[in-house]
Structure formats: structure tokens, C-alpha cells
Design a protein that fits this description.
By secondary structure, the chain is of the alpha+beta class.
Length: 195
């Protein structure tokens, strides 16, 4: 005798009552409609959020967010709009004037194809050392919360070497007077490479 036959013999003596059989038939007729409605409501919510994000981005020309940057040695709240490898930075300076700064760039991927800079790469660019030549003849370097006057550090060739430290990491800055600057995390840059 097989297992199937044993189960049939064991349960053949059991019969459902008439009420139970009627209730089971009615349950088969009842359909639960709540689940598809819940899915439709979730899909509508996702669609609405997606469209509002697209409208928000289209309205301002790019994704806008508030960031904190070190500008001229002070931490400043600024509005950053990034679009296609370019940025627009808007902030209020220490005198209360509205300032707008723009920049951007391109990079090359591992296959040699040109691509726009990402937001992270643009933020790194914004946090690089800045050299300022003031009207009074002094030269200043700004890097994070540091503001260093380097006017008297230039040698006879018009080159200045400054070591800056931020977040416990050194940065070696080479400034060629009136001809730009270069920096590196391990050593000073040869000023002859500026030309």
C-alpha cells in the first residue's frame, strides 16, 4: 500500500459539515482588492516624487544644494549648483555682498574619453589653496582655516615654498610670483614646470 492510499483511507472517514463547506465556497468567491490598490498608491507616490525632483532640477538648471566651504580662511555657507561638469557657487562675503563664482572642467576616463567633472571632483577643486595678490603689495595664501602671508618668503627667482597642513595631512605649495601656483601631497613642485 502506498502513502497516498494510506492517507485516503485515514481521512476518508472525515467529512466537512455543511456549514463549513458553504463557508469555504463563499471564501473562494471573495477577492481581496487591497493589495493592488496599495501597489497603485505606492507607484503614484514614487512617480510624483520623481516628477517633482525632475521639475526642481529643471527649474534651476542643475541640482542645487547648500555646502560649507573654506573661503578666505573662513568657513562659509554657499549655494552650489552643478551641471554638466560646471558649477556656480553663490555666497555672501564678510562685507555682506553677494558673490557668485563659476568654474568647472573636464577629465579623462581610463579609456581616454573626455567626461565632465563630478560634484565630488568639483568640491575638491573648490577646497584647493588660493593665492591672493592684494593691492597693498602683500601676497596671501588661503587653505581651509589658514590665512598665511607669504610676501617675504619669495626667493630671488620669485619662487616661494610653503608647507600647509589640513586634517593632519601636509600639502606642499610652490608659488611663482605672478605666474601661478602648484601643490602636491608629497613634495614641492618644480617651479620651472609652470611655463
Amino acid at each position: 500500500m502506498t502513502n497516498k492510499e494510506r492517507y485516503q483511507r485515514a481521512f476518508s472517514a472525515l467529512h466537512a459539515s455543511g456549514d463549513f463547506a458553504l463557508e469555504a465556497k463563499e471564501m473562494k468567491k471573495t477577492k481581496i482588492v487591497r493589495f493592488p490598490r496599495l501597489i497603485a498608491a505606492c507607484a503614484a507616490l514614487v512617480l510624483m516624487l520623481g516628477l517633482s525632483t525632475a521639475v526642481y532640477a529643471a527649474d534651476i538648471g542643475g541640482i542645487q544644494r547648500t555646502v560649507q566651504l573654506w573661503l578666505h580662511g573662513d568657513q562659509t555657507n554657499a549655494t552650489l549648483v552643478v551641471e554638466d561638469g560646471s558649477y556656480t557657487l553663490s555666497y555672501t562675503d564678510e562685507d555682506g555682498n553677494a558673490v557668485q563664482q563659476q568654474g568647472g572642467g573636464k577629465a579623462f576616463d581610463i579609456f581616454g574619453r573626455e567626461r565632465p567633472l563630478t560634484e565630488e571632483e568639483l568640491l575638491v577643486q573648490l577646497n584647493t589653496p588660493e593665492v591672493e595678490y592684494r593691492d597693498d603689495g602683500t601676497v596671501w595664501v588661503y587653505y581651509y582655516n589658514q590665512c598665511v602671508e607669504i610676501t617675504d618668503k619669495f626667493d630671488d627667482n620669485g619662487v616661494c615654498y610653503v608647507q600647509l597642513v589640513a586634517n593632519g595631512k601636509p600639502l606642499y605649495l610652490t608659488v611663482k610670483y605672478g605666474n601661478g601656483c602648484a601643490y602636491g601631497p608629497h613634495a614641492y613642485v618644480n617651479p620651472n614646470s609652470f611655463n
